[in-house]
């Protein structure tokens, strides 16, 4: 105990019973002073202060701990974390659940990348990729063709041919400048045929968001594996198995699981929203290291070990009174 060690305790005044309250109060004050002195924030030695934003306002946080003690604790925490990280590096069987929308991932990916979006529709996400990830090259792959496949009929992306033609024309107009500059290339074709024309390892990362049936997604992931460079990433949309997704014959969850099992790629992260975006990676390449560092530094996440061995279900909470539906993830 600093400063006051060995100091004699004052005797409580004996006033025959009437002064007991005053004695207790004096003792409490003394104890408070002792504890504050020990923590280094006693008289004139207040602990460090910092401001914290709280619901739009500001709250002053006074850390009741001396810099010396804080520093020592921090050193201990960092040393323990380093030891744990070293041990964890041998085990990369974990997935980060991100409590953020998919666009946030685009801010964290390295700029100047060569990228493909497979399944483009109206180009809403292509615009986000351009604005936020700032790629050196963006290849947009979509046949913009109405498809007769029964399993694809219930998917609202499978619009009639007139609408498909309008979509691709609008895309060409929307990205006219980038197409002229060579930053955006439009490939009006099916994923299998379009990707087969690229050399192995062409892309830093790709975004798979075409047909969502099990067979289609597994085929796209296999084709992407060939054209993504070593250490690159495969991102994809709609890792969903709630009732609406099942009604559209989505098989993304099962396709990702089987692709990971056959290829050895890992599910690095997943957004925890209604139509989640996933990120697949092979081992611990440079892109994984960079993205993981950004995720941990900037996002709110839950690290789940053995995620792909768990039963993942998106379940509804139904508030019948207000006719509201909320969705949550259940992992078992
Ligand atoms: C869900 S939409 C894409 C949405 C877009 N990625 C976005 O986030 O704004 C699916 C698109 O995939 C396209 N598609 C369907 N089958 C495909 C295939 N085999 N190859 C490439 N695109 C395909 C459809 O034409 C449709 O435009």
Structure description:
With 332 residues, this protein is an alpha/beta fold. It has two domains: 1-53 and 61-81, no CATH class; 93-331, 3-Layer(aba) Sandwich (Rossmann fold). The protein has helices at residues 20-39, 67-89, 102-108, 124-133, 161-174, 176-181, 191-196, 214-227, 243-247, 252-263, 286-298, and strands at 49-54, 57-62, 94-98, 114-118, 137-141, 184-187, 203-208, 228-237, 266-271, 277-281, 301-305, 312-319, 324-331. The strands form three sheets. Strands 6-5-4-7-8-10-9-3-11 form a nine-stranded mixed β-sheet, sandwiched between helices. The chain has a two-stranded antiparallel ribbon with strand order 1-2. Strands 12-13 form a two-stranded antiparallel sheet. The longest helix is centred in the N-terminal third of the chain and has 23 residues, at 67-89. The chain is globular. The two termini are 49 Å apart. The model is unreliable at 1-18 and 41-48 (pLDDT under 50). It binds S-adenosylmethionine (SAM). S-adenosylmethionine is lined by residues 117-121, 124-125, 141-144, 157, 190-191, 209-211.
Give the gist of this structure:
By secondary structure, the chain is of the alpha/beta class.
Offer a few descriptive terms:
single chain, alpha/beta, 2 domains, two-stranded antiparallel sheet, globular, binds S-adenosylmethionine
Strand content: 15-25%
CATH superfamily of the largest domain: Vaccinia Virus protein VP39
> Could you say which overall geometry the principal axes of the C-alpha atoms support?
globular
**What small molecules does the structure contain?**
S-adenosylmethionine
Mean pLDDT: 86
Number of strand elements: 13
Estimated helix fraction: 25-40%
Which residues form runs of ≥5 with pLDDT under 50? Answer: 1-18, 41-48
Number of helices: 11
What's the CATH C level of the largest domain? Answer: Alpha Beta
Question: Which structural class is indicated by helix and strand composition?
Answer: alpha/beta
> Could you please say which CATH topology of the largest domain applies here?
Rossmann fold
Largest sheet: 9 strands, mixed
Distance between the amino and carboxyl termini: 49 Å
**Major sheet strand order:** 6-5-4-7-8-10-9-3-11
**CATH architectural group of the largest domain:** 3-Layer(aba) Sandwich
* Helix-strand string: HEEHEHEHEHHEHEHEHHEEHEEE
Number of domains: 2
Radius of gyration: 29 Å
